[in-house]
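Teaching assistant here, posting this on the class forum so everyone can see the example we discussed in section. The complex has three components, and the goal was to see what a joint structure prediction looks like when all of them are supplied at once.
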Amino acid sequence: MLAEYLPVAVLFVIAFLFVALSLLVSSKLGPSRPNPVKNAAYESGIIPDPETAVGGSRFPVRFYLVAMLFIIFDVEAVFLYPWATVLRDLSWYGLAVMGVFVALLFESYYYVLRKGGLEWD
Amino acid sequence: MVALATAVGAVLAQTPVADPAGAAASTGAAEFWVFWILAPLSLAAAVSMVVLRNPVHAALMLVVNFFTIAMFYAVLEAQFLAAVQIIVYAGAIMVLFLFVLMLLGVDRELPTRVAQIRGQQPAALLLGALLFAALAVGVAGPFLGADSACNAPPDAVAAAGADAQPCVGLAAANEEGNVRGVARLLFTDYVWPFEVTSVLLVIAAIGAMVLGRRTERPEDLVDGRGVRKEPLRARAARPTGSTALDREAAE
Amino acid sequence: MDWLDVLIIVAVAVGAFALWLVGTALLIWGERRVVAKMQSRVGPNRLGPAGLMQTLADGAKLFFKEDIAPANADRWVYLAAPMVSAVVALVTFAVIPYGGTFTIGDRQISLQVWDPDVGLLWVLAMGSIGVYGIVLAGWSSGSKYPLLGGVRSSAQMISYELAMGLAVAAVFIYTGSLRASDIVANQAGTLFGPIPAWHVIPMAPAFVLFFISAVAETQRPPFDLPEAEGELVGGFNTEYSGAKFAMIFLAEFMNVITMSAVLVTMFLGGPNGPLFGPDIVRAVLPTIYFVVKVGIFLFVFIWLRATLPRLRYDRLMDLGWKVMLPFALLWVMATGFSVVLRETTERATVIRAAAIGAAVAAVLFFLAPLFSRRASEPGGGGGDGGARPLDDPRPGGEALPERAGDRPSTDRPTEEVGV
């Protein structure tokens, strides 16, 4: 049962060992001479301003919209994959079922488009 | 959003690919150990997700939790469900969470100890209990009742043949591959929930548009004399806290 | 399953691992050489023949570098991000057949690490995990530019993941299976005459969609906005150095190879090709075909970088959401329709219907940009006038001379700077 996952487990172990050992070896090989200036965040030579530091910055709500729309269409795509495997058997019935599904989604796509939800400023 | 996720999960989860009768027959030492490694990991991740103060760390713990769940699905031979768990939950929904955290200001301490809405905590408890009950009934359902085929020993089920409903066995459910097995059920027996999911997604799209609507209406852009105002983008260049964008983000 | 089976599994996995690792080293070298040639430069030519050893030297150098972490970095996440990126890149190619099947003794060996029922969904799943490597690297650095780069690139990646997922779905529908081995088998033989039955011909639109999204997913030029030097310094990896940077770099280039390999698997018959000669040649030929096909795509990736200027962020998002997504959706349904039609209807009728279908698809393809233009007009956009072009010379609105870039740059990722 679990044997079918053996190949990918083997590959994963190889990959993980390769990455972990690389980082470990390099941490031993490289020098370590930290100083405050070296460890400061890089801002093209300008002294980092704690007021605008990462923790305080906020992102436009647009990213939220993109992620939300992404989920919607991602879920749709996920339904398409199993559909692909049985479409030949389901024939016209399958096409109609997915047609309704996709049509509804296309409608919401069109709604978002016309509402300007896809405008990037 | 959670409702959406749950609905999708529910539709996808209604396949008997992971039915215990089949799994029990094939449970070996490997499955045993995989379970006892994954289960504590999964619980630990879930608990630390609740406990951790840093919202990004909490989100990452949730990703770890999703992963262990995906591996459970894989161990139970529900490969498609495992892939979907990673693609939709770990891939899409968690990215949304991370974006929302960014939206709120990443490292801002959120007032987690304070109930934001009146009656939120009792309501959450009640709904959580209801969800747990629903899941418990869903999982245990096939085993209730003495004549259930699932309660029979595996060889008795095998002797009864394919007629032994409702537990057809893992091998039968996955006969032409796990994806086809899911697809057959999804587009025949469960076609109605599937179509309703589409409606749910439409609602989600509308909800996203309403919640994420932009304050930049035409009247905001053009003042009384018909002269174009500074566009939002330029306004955003000003120091934080003074722009419409910030107010919008604070909402 | 005895120890010999396990040994074969390990050997096949190590083989794929080595192939991809060597390929990555060659790609980094090849990119520098080819871009140099295209720009009338010489490129690296000191180490080894034609500078072949350059990548190795660079990699070795990175290992001896100091590992600098910013003071306000999130220690563990800062370490985990490059590991996630690299490990994900190193396991994504598990499902790709990189050679044929041959027999040693009484055992069949197939040069494909893993052939699960979910098939190429594995690639999509790993792709969506890869987003974490980037967004976490950006966040954990505790620095402005990396955070902007990280969020920007994750938004870009999820936007193009949609078109990619739908393009893949079209191929799944055409094949009727998700397995990479089935998809490759479906492309065996010839279509007509000497033309091979590769999916690139019947599935040409899906091929184009997939290729464009592959470029965007791997953040290669002209879609390399996350690391737009002019705006974001180095993007999400600005604060990384030493071996951690090496891991991010490795993952980036390895993903390019994996995407090319997926492209070859789905559309160009994978390791398929004419077989001849003794058994040993027959065993090796598929791998050679595979490597050559992937190499051609890698060259195209490099070619694009040398040729095209970087896109502006809003145009990038527009292309993904307003052109690729609806077109991909239509193509998926059209593919489904044609598959059902072929199963149920006479061939002559199908050919006639196919011609009509192609015409409809073409019309819709040209209509797609019209939709987006109409939606961006004030009044037509459901009362949302914010989409009105700023350089609109309509009365009442004084045209702004510049869209952006004439104001001091900010910490806003929406800032558009035409490069």
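For the discussion questions: The interface with chain B takes residues 74, 77, 116-118, 121-122, 124-125, 127-129, 131-132, 135-136, 139, 147, 151, 154-155, 158, 161, 178, 378, 383-386, 388, 390, 396-398, 400, 404, 407-410, 412, 414-416 of chain C (CB under 8 Å). The longest helix of chain C spans residues 3-38. Think about how each of these relates to the inputs above.
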